[in-house]
UniProtKB/TrEMBL annotation:
Involved in transcription antitermination. Required for transcription of ribosomal RNA (rRNA) genes. Binds specifically to the boxA antiterminator sequence of the ribosomal RNA (rrn) operons. This is Transcription antitermination protein NusB. The keyword Coiled coil does not apply. The gene is nusB. Keywords: RNA-binding, Transcription, Transcription antitermination, Transcription regulation. GO terms for molecular function: RNA binding. It comes from the Bacteria. NCBIfam families: nusB. Pfam families: NusB (PF01029). Transmembrane segments: none annotated. It comes from Knoellia sinensis KCTC 19936.
Length: 136
């Protein structure tokens, strides 16, 4: 697994954990940076992804809700929410090419979630990439 893919997975793990524990993802990130719980501390790319999601939390959630066509965030599997938040951040706010961000999110959904999740993640992130130029 490539280094950036591992970093994305760790960001998804952290966002998922924060949601399951009902704690702020930004605070959990600060805790993990100060006192790592794994042999390898969180790297800069993982921290940037989590920070980016947290900094744009409301807009990301609003856009995911708006373009998910009949699926509320609460109805989605928790792991899909984490994958979509990281993917949406990369598609909308980062320098990562949109196709790479979507492909990585789909691969992680294939590995971590349900059989239907990769198609859903692909469609929703592709839609965000499509409407990105209209967002201010």
């Amino acid at each position: 697994m490539a280094a950036r893919t591992k970093s994305r997975r760790r960001a998804i793990d952290l966002l998922f954990e924060a949601e399951q524990r009902k704690v702020n993802a930004g605070e959990l990130l600060k805790e993990r940076l100060a006192a790592p719980v794994t042999e390898a501390p969180l790297n800069e790319f993982t921290a940037d992804l989590v920070s980016g999601v947290v900094d744009n939390w409301n807009q990301i959630n609003d856009l995911l809700t708006t373009y998910s066509q009949g699926w509320t965030l609460e109805r989605m599997p928790a792991v899909d929410r984490a994958i979509l938040r990281v993917g949406a951040f990369e598609v909308l706010y980062s320098e990562v090419p949109e196709g790479v961000a979507i492909s990585e999110a789909v691969a992680l959904a294939t590995e971590l979630s349900t059989d239907d999740s990769p198609k859903f993640v692909n469609g929703l992130l592709a839609r965000l990439a499509e409407v990105k130029p209209t967002l201010a």
